What we know:
By secondary structure, the chain is of the alpha/beta class. Helices cover 54% and strands 14% of the residues. It is built from four helices and three strands, in the order H-E-H-E-H-E-H. Strands 1-2-3 form a three-stranded parallel sheet.
Amino acid sequence: MNGLLLMGGLVLAGIGLAILLGLHRPEEQPPQHRLCPFAVLPVRDAAPGTEALLRQYAAQVAWMDAEVLRCVLLVYLPEDADAEQLCREMVQEYAVFAAAPLPEVQTMLEAQCRP
Length: 115
């Protein structure tokens, strides 16, 4: 009989502890604004070989898990209008690409890396 009462008490104590743990919520930390998984790909020129490489890269990225890579940032020099045009075309054609000039990317990455 005493063993039965002891087991019943332990079961009730376990249930009470589970309820207390379920009600206790740790303080939520504010979300940090971080970049999603991405890759940076410099685009040096608008040659046909560069375009073919970008198309091949987009096809390979389409098979990747989104947690591994969600965005490929095409970086071009601001003075290279042909490379900029190629990057803009790739962005319009493939959802995985984003394009930006080098100074803008440097500023963005520096802001993300500051504590």
